[in-house]
Amino acid sequence: MDYLIRKAEQEDIERIIEIAQSRLVSSASQETTGLIDYPIPSAEKYSKRISQGLFYVAYDTSWGYVAGFMDAYRDESLKNIFGDDPVVKAIAEAGESPLAYINTLAVTKEFEGMRLPSQFFSRLEEDLGKSCKQVWAAIVIGPLKNKRSAAVFSRAGFTFEEEIRAFEKYTFGLYKKRL
User: Fold this and answer.
1) 47, 66, 165, 179: which is deepest, by most CB within 10 A?
2) Are strands 54-60 and 65-74 parallel, antiparallel or unpaired?
3) pLDDT tens for residues 2-42?
4) Residues 10 and 52 sit within 8 Å (Cβ to Cβ)
């Protein structure tokens, strides 16, 4: 399969929503990988995120469709995109500005193991250049431990920094990579 990592476009929104829905996992399940109880943004919110963030898709050039996505944001747009989200607020307080925050990384099941996350990270770092000191991510580690996501970020050079409790029932691991 041939794919390229490119900036997301408005035409990708429907497929992005499909991928997010396909990767939803309930915190009550035994599944340990996916978007755990993730509230899927509306098409309007994704449109805003695409225009204000570093939003990428993995586009399969052989089949002509989007196989995954990753959205990231510089610290100056975090408040506008996420409001008072406690996880994003904790990262903004713990991080050293200028920073970037990876909000979501999702790949369809058939593309798991294809090293797409490392390609997303490389593209993000290339686009950030020297404009950021760090990249952060938050991974649900309780009530379920999202082991695969933690391993993906660790292999990419992210280190576990701390855990925080948010949204009443979740514990998040905060991961950081210095650039």
Assistant:
1) 66
2) antiparallel
3) 789 999 999 999 999 999 999 998 877 777 678 888 889 99
4) no
Query: Residues 6 or more apart from 113 whose CB is under 8 A from it?
Result: none
Could you check whether the bond before residue 143 is cis, i.e. omega within 30 degrees of 0? yes
Task: List residues bridging with 160 in a β-sheet.
Answer: 175
Q: Is 61 helix (H, G, I), strand (E, B) or coil?
A: coil
Please report how the helices 86-94 and 75-82 are oriented relative to each other, as an axis angle in degrees rounded to 10.
Answer: 160
The helix or strand, by DSSP H or E, that contains position 161, with its residue range, turns out to be: strand 159-166
Q: Number of structural domains, the chain? A: 1
Name the pairing type of β-strands 35-36 and 170-178.
unpaired
The structure's pTM equals: 0.94
> Which residue in the block uniquely carries the two structure tokens 């660790």?
154
Q: Rg (Cα) of the chain, in Å, rounded?
A: 15
Q: Kindly report the CA angle at 151 between 146 and 157, in degrees rounded to 5?
A: 130
Structural domain including 172 reads 3-178
Query: pLDDT (tens digit, 9 = 90+) per residue, 85-104?
Result: 999 999 999 999 999 999 99
Write the single-letter amino acid at 106.
A
